[in-house]
Amino acid sequence: MTTNPDSQHRSANQLGFSRRGVLATAVAAVLAHADAYAAESFAPASRRLASNRPPIEQRRFTSESVEATIEKVRADIKDPELAWLFENCYPNTLDTTVEYDEVDGKPDAFIITGDIDAMWLRDSTAQVWPYLPHIGSDEKLKRFVKGLIHRQNLCILLDPYANAFYKDATRPSHWASDRPEPIAGVHERKWEIDSLCYPIRLANEYYRLTNDASIFDDEWERAMRLAVHTLRVEQRKDGTTPYRFVRETTRMLDAPPFDGTGRPIAPVGLIVSAFRPSDDSSLYPYLIPSNLFAVQSLRQLATIFTEHIDDVEFANECTSFADEVHGAIQQHAVKSHLDFGTIYAYEVDGFGNAAFWDDANVPSLMSLAYLGIHDPDDPIYVRTRKFLLSPSNPYYLTGTAASGQASPHTGKNRIWPMGIILRALSSTSKEEIYECLTMLRNTHAGTGFMHEAFNKDDPRDYTRDWFAWANTLFGELIVKVHAEHPDLLARSFDD
């Protein structure tokens, strides 16, 4: 029997309300504020910029260290609207998306993406990432992140090909008509390399910051071995795969061609990703940012299995695998562009065909510096980034409202705030960061939150009222600017 969704949305904080109710309240509040903002655009800032956070008693999870950061950073932001955006966005994951429990003394954290009542392995890691600097001194937050690592292990062991899950392992999939049908507990079964990389990234960073090796237990080890096995299988060296994905849809990007197996590839050592981080099917099956991410993740696993699990054989397997994929990237994905020299292609097929663009989601080519895969001044990254921010990139849009990276996921005319944020996070130019902050400050359509995407000429035409990852990532940017370029936050921002 399927659990009543409202009955399962309880936290250790004993808040006593349903996530469905939070969603309705949050969306209504955002829309109401947008209307009020438009009607009172000339009202005093103190009146029209009231906090959009849920009341304290309705917040899903609270952290004293996060709250202290909000107070400290907000006080140093001169522009009232930018300060208001930061206060709304930075804690949005904790405020609205968390379900935290202690089960037999073991922490368990489940994090929805926002307006979709499911947890993505990618999004959940990215949503808590900006809070990780606090876990060394905040025991409550530390246990929360430890609980997320545990929950991600369970998800991988349930289905390593799935990208999104339910907390209730008996709940049928919303996409039950997909073929093959997802098993109970799986929201969606889109194979994306990064879905297995992000849990590795989280566990590695958790240990680096806390020195708590207790996360590397039998459950985690089994999940990681299954992850590496799955990545190996998806090299498809014998031309076969157990994976396919078919969906009845009129949206061409919702499923790979050829009965859900994807376009032809030459088996060159790269890993197939049937879908991009945007959840769109890939054009050419070798998605390069995700393959680079896999190289990084495999090297992190090699270190952990050497130093903490004492399995040198598996560690060597991870290192050899990483070396193979890295070599294949250099041979098949580092391409000479007519105008920009040697840069990364976004997708390739191993036959010599390549797509030159980027997607505003993460991992992306733009995000390679943010993820720590390349230094911001690495020559190939600098050249690739220059291409990405040029008219030669078909998904770099310039409009009357803003300029920024887009995604096939949201069409030809919408810019992603996430793309602008990542541009700022990877920039070494203060003026470029200021330009990005200005665009973000001026394109939230009066809602006080980031969105998935907005029309390049009209920010009021946007998608997703509640997208916690984008909100929290914006908060991460402001915290970084506060630490590295506090003078930027003392400047004014023109409408």
UniProtKB/TrEMBL annotation:
GO terms for biological process: carbohydrate metabolic process. PANTHER family: MEIOTICALLY UP-REGULATED GENE 157 PROTEIN. SMART domains: DUF1237. InterPro entries: 6-hairpin_glycosidase_sf (IPR008928), 6hp_glycosidase-like_sf (IPR012341), GH125 (IPR008313), TAT_signal (IPR006311). This is Metal-independent alpha-mannosidase. It comes from the Bacteria. Pfam families: Glyco_hydro_125.
